[in-house]
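User: Quick sanity check before I run a bigger batch. Here is a single chain. Can you write out its predicted 3D structure?
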Amino acid sequence: MMTKTVSEAIKYRRSVRKYLDTNLDEEKVKKCIENATLAPNSSNMQLWEFYHITDKETLKKLSNACFNQNAAKTAVNMVVFVARRDKWKKRAKQNLEFLENMFTEQEKDGKDVTSRRKVSRRYYKKIMPTIYTDFFGLIGLYKKILSFFIGLFRPMYREVMFSDLRVITHKSVALAAENFMLSMAEYGYDTCPMEGSDTSRVKKILKLPRKAEITMIIGCGIRAENGIYTERFRVPFEDVYKKI
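Assistant: Done. Predicted structure follows.
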């Protein structure tokens, strides 16, 4: 049963490095991954995939790719968060199909959706292709120069390079990962997001395409008594809180 409040789950969540040899309820973990899909993300493009690893042989291979750090070696499940920027065309089409169906239903109720339909079509048929299309970085460079000069006269969107879009995509996936970890904490399950891994080997293990990118690998389990290495440390709140 999920009993923790959001604040309680946030406080409970720690990066746990060692787990008990105790199985998790895989359906609960799956539910937490479903919660990950509800995370806010750029333009609702949902350029992500989630790989729930329960197979022991695959866990062993992934642990090796994560340098056999304890959070990987003792994990009873892993979840790999993958950025799929290459799926932008499919996701834009899915968004537009959803909106078109919604507008059709609203029209049946007598609502005027002409303006909203026009905006949605322009957004997913024209703006998204303009943002996501590139050719060896040349189009991105052109868009960067153009946005600079337009930005001299009015507010202008400037994150138009391929490298910018990579950051944007990974930020969205990271938001999903946080949803997942807090959902796990609500169940009393523990997690550890791991940066240290050989991402090329991870992609090979999971048979991912070349353009897929690993955002985060999260070890999952129930914390061992010595699973948390130190007390929680945060710099003073006054150092990071700026009220304007």
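The CA atoms of residues 128 and 200 lie 29 Å apart.

User: Great, the batch can go ahead then.
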